[in-house]
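Weekend entry, working from home. Most of the wet-lab plans are on hold until the incubator is repaired, so I used the time to fold the two sequences that have been sitting in the queue since the last round of cloning. Logging both here for the record. First:
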Amino acid sequence: MSDTTTLEFESDDNEISVIPVTDFRNSNGAFEHRLPPASATAPAEEYLLNHADVHLSQEGIRRLVQGAVEPQELNGIRIERHRVETGWLMAISYRAYSPMVSLAIENDRLLAEASYAADPHASGGRKALAMPEPHSEHAVLFHPDDYKDIEESVDRSAKRVLIDNPQEVGERLVERPLMLVPVTFKSETGEPADDVTAVDGNCRLAYCYHRIPPVPRGWVDDSLIGSTSKKTVVLRPSHLMRMPLEHRRELVRKVIKAAYVRLKEPRTGTTADIRDRNKWAMALNALTIPVTVIVGYRDDNAQRGMQRFPAGVRSLLLRMNTGGKVFEDGAKNAVRAEEIINGLYDEGLLGPEAQARPTRDALIGRGDVAASMESLGFNHELPDLRFALVMQQLTYKNWKFNALVRSKLQTEGNLVLSRRNGPIVELGLRSYSASQATNSPRTALETGCLWQDLVDIPWSVENIDTDTKVDELLARAVTGETQATLLLGALGMISLVMSGHLLAAAGSAEADAGTTIARTSVGHIIKGLLAEGEGQQILADAIKRVRAGQTPRWWDAEREELIDQPNDWRGSTYNAQLRKAVRHGWKAKDSGKEKKTEAEQETDKLTVFQEQLGTAVDRLRDLFVLREKHGTTDRLAWAEVEASFAHIEDIAEDLRLISEPKPRNR
């Protein structure tokens, strides 16, 4: 975060008032901030230390109480309980000084440039930080990354949110509470071992820091700044994190004093005077925040202790994130996916510990991925193998697995393909986060990267890491071996999608193909390819070619062999031709000589219907996008949509007449 960040203030001629946050009044009867002495925190510390629902160390409690605006109110404060899937989170709510709180450590939804350890090419770049681990005794998140990486993460996160999500902080108080959690670090070079960080409210907190004007150099220790050329310092989140507790409190005291010294100076009435006074008034208004701090956790299974505390915090965070900058679908799927994997690990559903831990680390993809893949018997340098492992692990079908995944997805009913799809896509793409742009592959995979056989039939991932092994896999698939067929399809799909040769069906695809195409999901295209020998050849060749950095070849129906793509083909052309072949076959039939069977005719009619239905869904999504772009919130008049609802209901009713019943949830 640059030390040259400039503070942007409104050019209003009206003065901004300092808003009261306590009942304290000075001799003139006006509200004034007063940082309470450390001695005033002792009763509250003792109360919380002896409370059965507070599971923190004395140092952790001291950090909370000394950051409170009114620590006396914490003496006897009510402990709130929040229900999560595995137990209860205990929390307290009060008002705290914003500089006494640190930003969230890692914020994946705002760090699109983050690369994951799952990508073999990520070693040279900045990796996403590891997920926090449980503390052995307290309701505290342990962050195992190097402290310098954590500092870099919070500074970048603060800089990013100032651009992406401006907040009205300063002219008004922060009104919506931030959710905080105590944390501890792997501290090896003298950094503070403990802190309190935001898990919800990063944007508001970053803007509170932003409203504090540059401070004199002596207020921040030289060891935290680096440069010796500046007389004032723009506070970074990392500066605050490195300060001992006492120094942070002293910084708050100095900011308060400096603000009131400036505000008590005589008014001149000039625009410059008003702007400068407003700057310090906004600093005081941003100096405090309402907070809810997690202080304890009680697992439904007492023997689990704090093992599932991080999962409980993540679960609460996901449900809370409904205001401000909410999680997008991809981010929600990523959080849910990690909850699923951690839940499977916690419940022993990833196998014995020797297998379970590396499986968990490989699937999540944040740290120790190479070693984990090697211990599981896979070549860690091939990202498609890990992606296939994600697919395989999340396509199990048994009641324990299904029940846990449904609970993490907060859904009822069958664990159908579409519900498994999102978490698989987000975890799988981590294998490519440092290597290439993933927007187009994500769009393609989100159409549905699975086909039903992956769920209905048990399969496993083999270490197919050479061309010879790919050829052997193909030979087994040609003989009809189900295991080989499904693995060939999984690896082939990943190769085609990630190389840009199997995409979502584009509007111009028919023009590229010269005829109608199969406008179905990626998974259904792969199922169609696996059903034909030519398609199996395409898939096997794609695996080998993409791994070697080459473009996949095409099947020449006349010569009955693989050939290089025509020079004028693009990825979208290949995609259109692939979808054409899945729909019409690899050899064009002479409609005058070869009449389609009755079954083929019915299949064609169903395909046309499903394509047109998919087009209708796309048009509805276009309407949603347009309304969001225009900021439209008005509901459509019933008269405008009544006919559409009638058509939809008729379609559903008629389709049920010729389809099997929906499977019941068991």
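Second, folded right after the first finished:
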Amino acid sequence: MPESASVEQEARQHVLSALDADPQLSGAEWGEFGERFDRHFPELERLFRSLYGERGDWLAQLSALVVECAESWQKRPAELKALDARREAEPDWYQSGGMLGAVCYVDRYAGSLAGLRDRIPYFRELGLTYLHLMPLFLAPEPNSDGGYAVSSYRDVNPKLGTIAELRELATELRENGISLVVDFIFNHTSNEHEWAQRAAAGDPDFEGYYWLFPDRTMPDAYERTVREIFPDDHPGSFVPLPDGRWVWATFHTFQWDLNYSNPAVFRAMAGEMLFLANQGIEILRMDAVAFIWKQLGTACESLPEAHSLLRAFNAVCRLAAPSLLFKSEAIVHPDEVVQYIDPAECQLSYNPLEMALTWEALATRDVSLLAQALTRRHNLPAGTAWVNYVRSHDDIGWTFADEEAAELGINGFDHRRFLNNFYVNRYPGSFARGVAFQDNPRTGDCRISGTTASLCGLESGSPEAIRRILLAHSIAISTGGIPLIYLGDEVGQLNDYGYAQEEGHEADSRWVHRPHYPAERYAHRGDPTTPEGAIFAGLARMLAVRAQTPAFAGNRLVDFTTNNRHILGYQRQADDGGVLALANFSDSPERVDAATLSGLGGDAVDLLTGQRLRIAEGLTLPPQEFRWLAVQPA
């Protein structure tokens, strides 16, 4: 028997003995868990041993982890176990062409969790199947980093409601066909979390939960290879404590990085994750996945162990919350983004490159970079999907690869400066009204804040604004994956410049694109003669066509070269025929010639209008217009 198999058998017996000794584990639930244990323990054991096998306590820690998983499964509500069974019977449920996601801050959109329940009829009108609530757990005020500094994973911010209300909301959403998504901030906690407070007080059990050092020796060594994330908040990656110690804080001074080289931290965070799953959370957005493992002499980003940790957390889910999915948040080089997307790691992922290059194409009226990205980087492994979005709660950063831009004759540094100037209205003739985030006037480096409507020109009065808004959303809706709307953008909400008067927000321009519920705009959504009504009607039509067209299900995209740098093209395919999507980013009419379309049948149907088109002689698209054409091979 190979040594690894022998070690696994020994570990298995050790864990089974621990399970047998737990008086809480019995009955039918235990039988179901035993079946899962047989299927998934080998992978969990392999991963846990790879991470912690050099420690003398690794087997005891693994045994305790599996016992905790079994106890969590015993507590899992019956309706969630029924959901587990449905998801296992239909594992590709999130690949449906009827999927539609939305994201919001609870307080800004609805005031509270109770207020959000009152919005469910509207969510059904919109067709939501996925609702992402921005961080809503207990966090220090006013320095909460928008909720990403968590003081408790089991307590909701009391201004929003209670954990019981969150559980009730999850149930009601599920009954209405909507999966609840929340952030799992697992790279760091707030410095006010109980674990951090006990570590600061010198509790030896909890000092090992964080990267604490007695002096600057090790921090200096790490910082030789680690980049600064928010230098305006603090230089380097460490912050001092009053007693002279230093603690790792990658992001803000009040966010302390967890030490995953300690298996007790993995167990503790697995417990928090399973607690959330048992409240009815169906998808966890795994925040800052690239940063969760540290190793001296490296950049401490996207290390192999980070992927092992995600896979180990997944194995925990398969044991105790089988329907739970992960969504990765990795705003890194495109080559690194895709490394987290795997059925055994993160089944879903934001698509930051498509988002950024959609904005790039709107500014340049040239689709070359976007077309290149769709050709090279869109298709994913089976069992995974993109989450496509026009913009999110966060800023827009220009995440394209410099080496790929260079292939098109584009200097990445200069192009980013142009895009920054364009979107913050420092470029002549710009339609955009964005706000710089982390602005550095000396270098021209910054990122972009702004609502979709303000960035597309609705605020500046640009007559093409509504066409740009719909054009941008057409890409997110039709390329494949789950389209995600920042709630309020579907009715053309504008920037909120009053953010600077809100305590704790004045130094963070991203709050400009997190406005409060735009009640007046929603009131006009049924009137297509208003901007908000025209936007809402246009999105509703796209979503209805997408849901009714089998070719739009799944993630697979087929390249289509238009031979016109202003017109983006791609194909979606199904057994009953395909769809050719064409999108003109130019301010003037543009043509796809007959030779380019010669591989298709001479006739096509525009799915959005029902119009039958003769494309054998070529096709002209008006400015900022798009077509979804049902086509057949010639």
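Plan for Monday: verify the second prediction. The longest strand covers residues 567-574.
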